[in-house]
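Recap for those who missed Tuesday's class. We walked through two folding examples back to back. For each one, the amino acid string is listed first and its predicted structure tokens come directly after. Nothing is annotated here on purpose, so try labeling regions yourself before you check the end of the notes.
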Amino acid sequence: MERNEWMRREIAGWQAEGLLEEGLCQRLRERYPIGQEKDGATWGMLLFGGLGSLMIGLGIIALFAANWEQLNRPARTLVSLLPLALCGTTAVVATWKNDRGQPFWEGLGVLWMVSLVASVSLILQTYQVGGRWSQFFLSLSLLSLPVVWVSRSVFAQCLWMLYPLLWYFALEAERGAGGRGWVALKGAFLLALSLPAFLAFIRGKYSRFLEQAGYFLMGFLYLVTTSLLLCHLLPRHLTWEFPWKISLCWLVSAAIWLAGRRWGFRHWEGLGRVSALVVALAVPFLEDGALLMVPLAALFAAVLIAQGIRKLRLRHLNEGALLACWLAVVKFFASEMDFSLKGILFLAMGICLVVVNVSFVRYRRRRMGHGEKA
């Protein structure tokens, strides 16, 4: 049974019982149009379409590499640009035919991005063009923006969001490739260039899987990149210290979470929570000088567990329990404790997770049962 068809029947039943007004029913029908799931993009189509496009791109690169030494420079340049030209031509033809099928554009967007990286890399290698890695990633960011704008591919935009992040890390490794203010300004400019595509994604209509994947992947990459750029507003001796970067990531995550709670922005509350959770996973690997971060991460795990119990949400409970177990496992496994004791600890944590899940499910059923009786 299709989800939207089932929802339509439920809406009709609610309207017949007088539970919903006509205007609200009409808005709900527009939100769940019949045929969207049949003609739209399912997660399997999108996932395997993107994976297939990636494999096609890598296969083309492998074929070129096998015969690369037999080609002269003009032939190498032509071969390097050929996949890029084919992707552009395909996009023009699809636009002319008004084909906006999301699986097609998702696959084309990924293939287009891979072809662009391959083309630029092969041309630079052919003509022995030197330079820094930061310049390479900055060039890729600018050259691939039209791909994101034209295809409106969620996966392509997620891949594009890696470029500002890689550019930042390359610039950080080079140390002194530009002033601190100049780094923050260029990074903000790059993120601003991607905003039109992100806003188009927000306004667009996508399948549930693609919408959630886009919000969380792009939102997390925006959050991390913004936090790293904010580090350059700190005093110079703090700019390169990892604990401060994690602290800023947590601060930005908290701001997104609070904004989602206060104004009800779609997915913002979940994005802030999950982003803070992902960032907290790096805390156990910090040096001993950042021991304060471990108790803060443990406190965050306790807050997630308490929120899961209070709101009867198993997902929040599991997120907090997994974070607490992760902190303990990494710290204990990095210690000089006997390996058999480490194994016992790991086994005990697994049993605790199972017991907590079973107990919580029973507790939630009892609470919901009492609520229905009341």
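Example two. Treat it independently of the first, because the proteins are unrelated.
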Amino acid sequence: MKKLIDISTIIVGTILILIAILSFILLVPKKKTANIIIIAGQSNAEGVSEYADLNGVLSEEKYNKYSNGTSRVKFIARYSLDNFVNFKFGLNEYKNTFGIELGVIDYFLDTNKKDNLFVVKCAVGGTGLSYWQKGEEGYNRLSTTVNRAIELIKKDYSKINIQAMCWMQGESDRTALDSEKYFNRLNTFVSTLREDYKTYGNFRFVDAAILKSEYSDKINKSKSEFANLSDNNYYFEVADFNFSLIDDVHYNAASEYKLGYEFGKYCF
């Protein structure tokens, strides 16, 4: 009789545990996939134009939205790795400026009404592609930033997808030697990144031409040839956009925003 009671107790206990587990599965909503966009490169990725100059470029509604912040897009950067914050103006390394992430984010919000977005930024002005090779300071900074982002996201999301990487770089490689090596360095850089983060998907690599100058043709040809290696590589020209500059190489506010928006078209 005692054995029968013991068995009954075990059965009842097992059933209660199963009910508790089932209730948890049914009542706790499954967390969505976290979608990451990486922003990297040099100063035209970082951005040197002031967001105040977007008054009149953006609609009043959009300008106010980015002044106050949007909870649909979270942002983290290499110079501030404590936590993700709601994206808004004033988060750039130079607080009154903005980079190509603004246009990417604006395209996302214009075209996607449901999903979340996590923007991870690591751009350093004045850096050649050799700086971004694995083992060098740029790659170390980038991987530290991405790894920290993934660590934070894993607290709340069961799945992470690195959707795309936006790469705006090349001006510092306008020498005979560096322009000659650009294709191989770019191929090595992107291939290494994809291998290191293959757990999170085969991300799109989106690249843009640098402006016309000495050795720019060779660099842009390398960018284009690399894009042709894979359907997951994207490259676009900038010559037809009639962009305006604030100096020899840096875009003004309207052009920086439009450049980012064009990047966004290839990210999603």
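Answers for example two:
The radius of gyration is 23 Å.
The helical segments are 2-27, 43-46, 60-68, 101-111, 137-153, 176-196, 216-227, 253-267.
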